[in-house]
# Entry
Amino acid sequence: MCERVLILYRHPLFAEAVRRLLSVEADLEVHAAPLVSVALDEALETLRPEVVVLERPGTEEPEPDLSRLVSRAPRIISFGLADNVLTCFEGTTIASAGPDDLRRAVRLSAPTQELARLPVAGAGTAGMRELRWHGRGGQGVVTAAKMLAGAALRDGRCAQAFPEYGPERRGAPLVAFTRLADAPIRLFTPVERADVVVLLDPTLISTVPLVDGLKPGGLLLANWASSPEDLRQVLGTRAHRIAAVDATAIAQATLGRAIPNTVLVGALARLTTLVSWSALEAELREAFGAPGSARAEANVSAARRGYETVQAIAADEGAAVPVPPPQPSLPGWRSLLSGGVIRPTKVEAAPQTGAWRAQRPVLQIERCIHCLFCWVFCPDSAILVQNGRIVGVDYDHCKGCGICARECPVKPTAIPMVGEGEPVAQRSEALSA
Ligand code: SF4
Ligand code: SF4
# Structure
């Protein structure tokens, strides 16, 4: 049983956090020292610790030289709070570790063997399946991620589901994640290497790098009105299994609304062994009101249509995974200069923020008096002006907020909003009628 623990930290907060994690072990004598040469040598010399808990380096920090520690501490554990990765010095990595694992690692006389038996699911754990969902606010992306997790729980599995929100508004692209495993999951980071990617909104195909991070042979399921072969052409990948289901049309027919999420979850139950149909059906009935209610039954019916009509084509074994085009990189918050100074990066024009739009403004030039009010009030500088006159809208960056339409002094407005994808001519006629 150990008595002295030495925490070697890069950041004082790490020492504080680990100290708290170990505070329940009353008979441990916990010390901390910064991971710099002089303090390290002195601490090792005076304390002679049984266990060293070493702060795991961040991705941009150098690996520590452990050779100086080996002869002076019987056991060394490297631990990262941010990514919850715990490594025993012998080389066994527990990819997803938590407070209990750290306490056990400090306590155990043979941590490598014991930790290897801990039933935790982390990155690389056999049997864990990770999913990424792409869609827009209002399409039920997060609900879909949760429904799948809920069905897996009913099947007796472990599951987690969570979103990664960007701008919280209808129509803005958002991502959600689901993890399923047969053991408790202690990995809480966004999914980086997905087994399955689900696309709820086909208009995102040109703006979201869908196959980025999808494992070779992984499944890409899309809300797609045409065949999976067509989808494969558009995506340009032969290394992944591709599946298509016309979820918008099915949702419109069964639910009366173009909310494709339950159709896609039903299709997933057919294409994979992630959840059983009976568990999914029970989950849908509970999620959408009282069992037997019209809404619950309509959603079960939508999922069943997805289950029955989805089409898939296999991956080409050995085909190369497409390399995504380089993305502009912005400085992270850690790399920003102090004082909030942001270096000019020339990337501000690159993100196609117009992809967030659910509605678009359409300039009716014959009625415009060129007062420039829309130009003044547009928060995205998306109104195009030449020689003091409005000439159009920059749809690559217009986010569809509708401020221009509201501020236009011409009544009815000379720059009305129409639904994205709605035939413009037809809508313009309706407005001027
Ligand atoms: S809808 Fe909003 S973002 Fe688009 S042009 Fe009008 S004011 Fe600008
Ligand atoms: S606010 Fe209306 S009238 Fe004025 S420039 Fe814009 S579209 Fe034309």
